[in-house]
Amino acid sequence: MSCLKGPRGVSPGEPELVRRAVSTLFPRVTTLRISLPARTYEEWIPEVSVRELRGACRTVRDQAAPGPDGFPNLALKAAVGTRMDVFRRVFMAFLREGCFPARWKRQRLVLMLKPSKPAFEPSSYWPLCMLDTAGKLLERIIADRLEAFTDGPAGLASSSCPTCHPAVEDVEHVIFHCPRFTVEREELYCLANGPLEPETFVGFMLENERNLEATSSFASSVMTRLRSEEKARRR
């Protein structure tokens, strides 16, 4: 990022060059729709707290460029501070529905020419992608909750595996090694025509929709089992 502090960059103005640069920097990929397994029980989703919302706001830089909505960060943070109850209700509605608005996934793209690079080459540009800050706030709330869960006793915290002690029950151990999930793991390996490794797991998951759904089902099964075990330990 230090390079961006130098002389003001230049964005391409010719439409054809812009199209070529965008297609080079952002190749088209097949969109996969994930069909999540039906929940076997109604999960309680905690209300978005004032602390969570304030924490999310603190991660937003005041002078950062806005996204497609053009709403300055300072103005949005002032609005949140004034009507925090409204923002909490809106974000809570999205969490309950399991929905992240498509509008907040759109980005405003600015192409900046790299120093000493030919302007006619698509690879000569830095892509700067700006998202709407409201979406960033929701994203931060979700990320903080995921981190708190996976690091907690009911998640995938670095504690000893009850079956494979003293092995640490981290993500890699649960997915690839722990015998508690052998049946679910073998079903996944059948689709892959052999064992998966950490280096190949993501590639397998994104290869096609069938693999993505199978991986999602595997993860859901693992998390349900871990939650059940944690509840049993607390009794």
- How many β strands by DSSP? 2
The N- and C-terminal alpha carbons lie at a distance of 52 Å
Give start-end ranges of low-pLDDT stretches: none
Give the count of helical stretches. 9
Main sheet, how many strands, which sense, barrel?
2 strands, antiparallel
Radius of gyration: 22 Å
Sequence of secondary-structure elements: HHHHEEHHHHH
Mean pLDDT: 82
Beta fraction of the residues?
Answer: 5-15%
Strand order of the largest sheet: 1-2
Helix/sheet category: mainly alpha
Helix content: 40-55%
Identify the overall geometry. globular
Quick take:
The protein is mainly alpha-helical. 49% of the residues lie in helices and 6% in strands.
Keyphrases for this structure?
235 residues; mainly alpha; 9 helices; 2 strands; 49% helix; 6% strand; globular
